[in-house]
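Residues determine shape. Take a concrete instance:
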Amino acid sequence: MTNRPALARRDPRLIRLFQRARGQHSLFRADEALSLGFTPSEIEGRLARREWVALAPGVLASGSLAVTPRTRLRAGQMYLPESWATHESAAALWGLRGYALETPVRLARHDPAPIRLDATFVSRVDHESQVAAVDGIRVTTIAETIVDLAGLRYMSVRRLLTLAADACRRLPVTPRGIQSRIRPGHRGAARVREMLELLGLDDPSRSSSEAMMQAALRRVHGFGPPALNAKVVVGQGRVVEFDAAWIDLRVAVEFDGRPFHSLGIDRARDQQRDREASADGWVVWRVDNEIVDHPDSFIEEVELRLHMARQRRLAE
């Protein structure tokens, strides 16, 4: 608790209560106040004067405390110790991109009894959830959180892919871990499966745009699938790697949406490699996020370039 009133220096009960609350993120229970000698009427009087505030039934705090969404989660879990943070609240606690901890916060529990809490949405679930802890707050695991988010009406496969790809790069979660949390009958199950097909179960290092590009390339008609992360020999025996390549036609596609491609030294290295490949008969096409975001036009352009390459090969 911060900014404790001067009265606390004269009332040993308040001193002990503040000390107890300090270990509970500035929160305390009404029964703790009673155990220290406060009477029910004293507690009611302090609440009426806003010296204390009730954040959940029987869960109190100093009236001077700045109540944040995180405080709401802690208060909700003090009142419902079997509950856990879920959906958007869990995503914010784990640091998933695009989510901030906001009210109303979301808690879940198994008990079917309806609960109303101020600035808190409490839902009932009938499945076993994987629960971890972030900063002392019980929360669904990262994999469980991603699967839960997939069931929200606003969630698209593309947005889910971006979330999962970023999480797999930065956080302790894998595509197979996400797959393991798909539940029969879950509204977002089909969305998760489609996202994982794009992301790949064994290559979580790809960005969401790279995954979308590779998914689009698999739809190219009439030329067979490209070799992904293809290593080829160019020039005087130099081995280079392309994101995707039709080796027989000597056509390669490189994705330039990753941050390191914007660095001058890497850009110069890419350009030198492309010149060597072009001198050896390769057509190297560099694409970025903008074109990959329009897969149908991207596929048409790929097929056109492959057709032109095939015509050149036949004319040789």
User: Anything to note?
Assistant: The CA atoms of residues 49 and 107 lie 30 Å apart. The chain is about 45% helix and 20% strand. Residues 214-315 form a domain with the Endonuclease; Chain A fold (CATH 3.40.960.10). The mean pLDDT is 88.
